[in-house]
C-alpha cells in the first residue's frame, strides 16, 4: 500500500486517480497539490483528499508516490522541482499525452540524484475538464501506456504498472518516441481534424451547423476539448503530428481523387477497406 500519494493537479485525470485510489483503499493518505487552494476544496470536502496545499515542496515531501497530472509543458517545467523536493526512494509518474521531452528531462535529472521516474499516459479522458467530471471508474478497462527509457529503474516500471493495474487499467509498454508517434496518429491528429471539421462547416455558412445532427456531433465531440490543453499537446508533439498530418493528407487526397473522377468502383473499394479496418477495432 502507498503510504502517502501526492497528486499534483487535481482535475479530471488527477481527480479520477484520487477517487479510484480512495475507493480501492490503495493509499493511507492522499495529498492534493494545486495553484488555488479554493479549487481543491471540492476534493477535500467530499473526502477524496486528506490534505491540500499550494506549496509543491510541502505537497511532495515524504510522499512515496507522486503523480503529476498537469499539462505536458507544466510537467516538464515542474519535474526538476519535484526531483529536488521528493524523498529518496519515491516513485514519480505523470499523465502527459506526450512523452519524449518529459523523458529527456527525467533522464538528465537521473544523472544527478536517484529518483524512480517512469512516464505514463492513460488513454482515457473526456472533452470536459476539471474535478467536477472526475470519476473513480475512468481507468477501468482503459489502456495506460508506460514509457521507460534505458535509464529507468526497473522497480519504477513495476511500481507504476502495478499502480495503474490496481486502478483497473490494462498496461502497455512503449519507448517514449514510439509512443509519441503512435498517439500523434490515433489521438492528436483526430483532435486536430475534429477542430478543422467544425471550422470547415462554420465557413460553409450558419445553416450547415444548424442542420448538424448526431453523426456530425459524434464525429466532432472532441473539438469541444480545452484549447489551452490541446494547443500545448499539438506543439509539444509537433514533429510526429506533422508526419501524421502528411499521411492523412495523402489518404484524404486519394479519396478526393476518386470522388472527383466519379470512380464508383475505386471509391467503393477504398471505403470497404477502411470500413473493415474500423470494424476490427470493436
- What is the count of β-strands? 9
Which structural category fits the helices and strands? alpha/beta
Shape: globular
What's the CATH first level of the largest domain?
A: Alpha Beta
State the helicity in percent bands: 40-55%
Regions with little confidence, pLDDT below 50 for 5+ residues? none
Biggest sheet features: 6 strands, parallel
CATH architecture of the largest domain: 3-Layer(aba) Sandwich
Q: What name does the CATH topology of the largest domain carry?
A: Rossmann fold
Percentage of residues in DSSP E strands: 5-15%
Give a structural overview:
The structure is a single chain. It is globular, with a radius of gyration of 21 Å. The chain has 282 residues and is an alpha/beta fold. The strands form two sheets. The protein has a six-stranded parallel β-sheet with strand order 3-2-1-4-5-6. A three-stranded mixed β-sheet has the order 7-8-9, with helices on one face. The chain has two domains: 2-174, NAD(P)-binding Rossmann-like Domain (Rossmann fold); 179-279, 6-phosphogluconate dehydrogenase C-terminal like domain (6-phosphogluconate dehydrogenase C-terminal fold, Orthogonal Bundle). The chain starts with a strand and ends with a helix. The protein contains twelve helices and nine strands.
Amino acid at each position: 500500500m502507498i503510504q502517502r500519494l501526492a497528486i499534483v493537479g487535481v482535475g479530471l485525470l488527477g481527480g479520477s486517480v484520487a477517487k479510484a485510489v480512495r475507493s480501492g483503499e490503495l493509499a493511507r493518505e492522499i495529498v492534493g497539490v494545486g495553484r488555488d487552494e479554493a479549487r481543491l476544496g471540492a476534493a477535500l470536502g467530499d473526502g477524496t483528499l486528506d490534505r491540500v496545499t499550494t506549496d509543491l515542496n510541502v505537497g511532495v515531501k515524504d510522499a512515496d508516490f507522486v503523480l503529476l497530472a498537469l499539462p505536458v509543458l507544466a510537467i516538464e517545467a515542474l519535474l526538476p522541482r519535484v526531483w529536488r523536493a521528493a524523498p529518496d526512494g519515491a516513485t514519480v509518474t505523470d499523465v502527459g499525452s506526450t512523452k519524449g521531452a518529459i523523458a529527456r528531462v527525467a533522464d538528465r535529472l537521473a544523472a544527478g540524484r536517484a529518483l524512480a521516474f517512469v512516464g505514463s499516459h492513460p488513454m482515457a479522458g473526456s472533452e470536459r475538464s476539471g474535478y467536477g467530471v472526475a470519476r473513480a471508474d475512468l481507468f477501468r478497462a482503459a489502456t495506460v501506456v508506460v514509457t521507460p527509457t534505458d535509464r529507468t529503474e526497473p522497480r519504477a516500471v513495476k511500481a507504476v504498472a502495478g499502480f495503474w493495474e490496481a486502478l483497473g487499467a490494462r498496461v502497455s509498454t512503449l519507448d517514449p518516441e514510439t509512443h509519441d508517434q503512435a498517439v500523434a496518429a490515433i489521438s492528436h491528429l483526430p483532435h486536430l481534424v475534429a477542430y478543422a471539421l467544425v471550422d470547415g462547416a462554420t465557413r460553409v455558412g450558419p445553416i450547415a451547423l444548424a442542420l448538424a445532427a448526431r453523426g456530425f456531433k459524434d464525429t466532432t465531440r472532441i473539438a469541444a476539448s480545452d484549447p489551452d490543453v490541446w494547443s500545448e499537446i499539438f506543439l509539444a508533439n509537433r514533429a510526429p503530428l506533422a508526419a501524421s498530418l502528411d499521411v492523412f493528407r495523402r489518404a484524404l487526397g486519394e479519396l478526393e481523387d476518386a470522388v472527383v473522377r466519379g470512380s464508383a468502383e475505386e471509391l467503393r473499394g477504398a471505403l470497404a477497406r477502411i470500413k473493415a479496418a474500423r470494424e476490427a477495432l470493436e
